[in-house]
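Example record

Each entry pairs one chain with its bound ligand, NDP.
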Amino acid sequence: MQVSFLGLGAIGAPMASHLAKRGGLTVWNRTSERAAEFVANHEARAATTPREAASGAEVVITCLPTSQEVESLLEGPEGLKRGLTSGALLIDCTSGDPGTSRRIASGLRSRGVEFVDAPVSGGVSGAEAGTLTVMVGGNTEAFTRARPILSAFGKRIDHLGPVGAGHAMKAVNNALLAVNLLALGEGLSALVKAGVSARAAVEVLNASSGRSFVSETLVPERVLTGSWPQTFRLALLDKDVAIAAAFLKEAGVEGPLLDLAGRLMAGARAELGETADYVETIRLIERRAGVEIRG
Ligand code: NDP
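Structure tokens for the complex follow.
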């Protein structure tokens, strides 16, 4: 099967590497050096434009920062739309927004192209291991077609509803991640300042009801050790919380907690910049509190 993958970023590249093992893979990346590096190390060919990547492909996968980049990649003389042929399937693995995806899907449907949103969770390590959780929105037939492709890098693959449902699910998940990051950063800073050992505090939390992915994995691996790898940009998490807050509004649910988390993440992004990693939010809280959570 001819599959094309566009967006070889931090998570896109390891996802695409699993597809390369199946053969018939074409890749495209805005910065062409990244695509050249990918084809030098994997069984794949590089396209020079999105249009060329889509030509002859049965399935096209996008993994870009936001739905805005996906929408712009579709347009223009060298855009995806010019290359996509009737019967093709576009799988968008971007953590995007439901409204833009519904608009993209309806524009493609009139050309005989199906669309599913299929954002992922599990981080770069999950992508490398091929154990991502994939949250899919789209019609049943398109989901059935997408599933075997997604299984190259996904372990749990759920069909959550029509187009946009996957993006809504992912945004809510990441909003909870942001709330946990902020709350744990604040709580641990206070405990350490009061003289509690950081490691003991984390171990007690992880044997109690306040535990989370942040306390069980991120804090022990990165904060306690003082290593701050760059795996997921804070700017992208900020975008996800804003999508979740807009989704709550659209659903008619009051969301004061997510609104506040959104403001705090936007402030952290403004202070730390576009390339900072999301866990550095805790570093910012530490700095303000005048404490270091290590141990
Ligand atoms: P990165 O910032 O590492 O990579 C972004 C990719 O998009 C790069 O290939 C970049 O190309 C490309 N890109 C950026 N702007 C444009 C544009 N205007 N036109 C064309 N291509 C563009 O992001 P990630 O790989 O980390 O994230 C991708 C998506 O996956 C995001 O929606 C993110 O929220 C989501 N995600 C990320 C996770 C992670 O752990 N990193 C986990 C789960 C989801 P170039 O090389 O030229 O910059």
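The longest helix spans residues 165-193.
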